[in-house]
Design brief:
It contains nine helices and 14 strands. It is α/β, with parallel strands linked by helices. Helix 1 packs across helix 9.
């Protein structure tokens, strides 16, 4: 008798189906409904007693339901599994919500990434699996195992297949760019992995305005930009204001064009319009940590690589007691 199941939330049903198929782990039948006043009701149609449950949740705004709706839906499903005597509950959360609010950077402000961690742990999860957390310190917000996987190999494979970066001439055609100091360590890892030169852009933000960059300055030898494709790599892109600001500076300093690679393509309005209307953006590459079907229909430059296989491998190794370290990078 099978003892391991995946519960999909409404946040990303397509990814849940792919992981289920690739890991040979069945999906449980779940009903999610909303009252007229927007209250959420969750119902699991099959027994979970004594079973190992994986809940797939990647909270996002889908045009109807908010990130907060998906968070509450996830919490209610966790509590339902806990009350129904599930043997273990693992939360698969590719795009961790509120990850940008990971520290107290002003008086009397919330540390929302920690508060969301407390909520999920209070619900009863035994483990959480994430991808490319905005800040590594978020792992320390949990008093349970928190596995943070990286997309570096997936991105490397994409660049080999689509940009032939393993050929002898590629290093003279590309340069990797960190869009801010916070992304520098991540970009250094990519540069070492790809054996490629890298640069960093220093951003000056107006913290009186949310998500607003006032000025961007390139740090590094500008000759490595001349007539090259600049590959901007970051963990997430929301409205793409930063990407456009950084891209403008790179083009001004001599870059030929821009390729953007981010793990989490949040792409809130007006992101798609900005990408479409910016000629120097050659391609915008994201993972499927968040649903991208509607965005792909609107943006021909948008390309998607999948994390489903990596998450499936993680499930299989957790089920068999295997090591996760081999697939961490």
């Amino acid at each position: 008798m099978r003892n391991t199941f995946i519960i999909p939330t409404s946040s990303h049903i397509e990814l849940a189906k792919q992981i289920s198929e690739q890991s040979s782990t069945p999906l449980l039948d779940v009903s999610i409904s909303h009252f007229a006043n927007t209250e959420i009701r969750t119902s699991i149609k099959e027994s979970v007693r004594g079973k190992h449950i994986y809940i797939l949740s990647s909270p996002n705004y889908d045009g109807v339901h908010s990130i907060n709706d998906h968070i509450i839906e996830t919490y209610l499903l966790i509590k339902t599994c806990k009350r129904s005597d599930a043997s273990s509950i693992t939360l698969l959360c590719p795009c961790y919500p509120y990850a940008r609010q990971d520290k107290k950077d002003d008086s009397r402000v919330c540390i929302s990434a920690k508060d969301i961690a407390d909520l999920f742990v209070l619900g009863g999860i035994n483990r959480i699996v994430c991808f490319d957390l905005h800040s590594h310190q978020i792992q320390g917000f949990f008093n349970i195992p928190c596995d943070n996987f990286y997309c570096i190999n997936l991105i490397h494979d994409y660049l080999i297949q689509n940009y032939n970066i393993n050929c002898n001439e590629y290093n003279d055609k590309f340069v990797i760019v960190a869009p801010d100091e916070g992304a520098l360590k991540r970009v250094q890892q990519y540069a070492n992995r790809f054996r490629m030169r890298f640069m960093v852009v220093s951003k000056e933000r107006d913290y009186n305005k949310i998500n607003t960059v006032e000025k961007a300055v390139v740090i590094g030898d500008k000759k490595y930009l001349q007539d090259r494709t600049a590959i901007i790599i970051d963990d997430m892109a929301d409205t793409c204001g930063t990407v456009i600001k950084v891209g403008n500076v790179l083009i001004e300093k001599g870059a030929k064009d821009i390729v953007v690679i981010v793990t989490h393509g949040i792409l809130s309005d007006p992101a798609i319009d900005r990408i479409n209307n910016t000629d120097y953006i050659k391609e915008f590459i994201v993972s499927d940590s968040l649903p991208q079907k509607q965005n792909i229909a609107r943006c021909p430059k948008l390309k998607v690589f999948s994390i489903a296989n990596l998450m499936s491998e993680a499930i299989n190794r957790l089920n068999s007691g295997g090591s996760l370290s081999e697939i961490f990078k």
